[in-house]
Amino acid sequence: MAGLGPVAWPPAPIRTERLVLRESEARDRAAFIELFASQEVRTYLGGPRPRDELERAVPEVPGRRTGVFVVDLDGAMIGAITLDRRGAERPGHVRPDAGEAELGYMFLSEVWGCGYAAEACAAALDWFADVLPGEPVVLCTQAANDRSMRLAAKLGFAEVERFEEYGAEQWFGVWSSITPTG
Ligand SMILES: CC(C)(COP(=O)(O)OP(=O)(O)OC[C@H]1O[C@@H](n2cnc3c(N)ncnc32)[C@H](O)[C@@H]1OP(=O)(O)O)[C@@H](O)C(=O)NCCC(=O)NCCS
């Protein structure tokens, strides 16, 4: 997926009630590997990747590019949020020229159920609305991914369509800072 584009990056760390959204650092490497190696986290994302392969492949400072926020709780990484450009070759678009900003999120399973993902994603969407006012954000998630579906609804994403991809039903929704929902 292409990076977000010409926005000033990284922004100053974004503070929420309990969390900080910041650029990744070398000390986050183990948490990145855990996210990609975790059976639970990767259930609806193509499955876990072998830990030894990740240990070899993951760079010293993973995820250091425009649109990748590390979510930090009390000084430790608990998840990652991405805002990327959705590839034109993928199904699901809301603009004729494609390339929509797309939200992605992965949190370590031990912190699920605390509202951290909702708190962090809302802050990332606020940041996005500030830097690219009026631009929609899209989200694609497996319809069977109940937690992700609940989060999408809570954040104010509205269903656009559903389609089959990767052998599963995908839910495709859109969020806009200028069309508040719910
Ligand atoms: C999708 C994912 C981020 C959702 O995480 P989550 O912790 O369930 O999401 P939220 O932050 O919205 O937390 C919601 C839960 O916290 C609870 N909660 C507890 N304290 C809370 C608080 N202070 N504020 C808000 N909610 C709180 C809510 O009641 C809710 O509980 P429920 O799940 O029993 O309904 C997580 O499951 C994940 O990382 N999955 C793997 C990656 C993935 O599939 N990503 C999708 C691809 S885009």
UniProtKB/TrEMBL annotation:
The record, for SUPFAM superfamilies, names:
Acyl-CoA N-acyltransferases (Nat) (SSF55729)
Domain N-acetyltransferase positions: 19-181
Originating species: Streptantibioticus rubrisoli
What's the protein here called? GNAT family N-acetyltransferase
Instruction: List, alphabetically, the InterPro entries matched.
Output: Acyl_CoA_acyltransferase, GNAT_dom, N-acetyltransferase
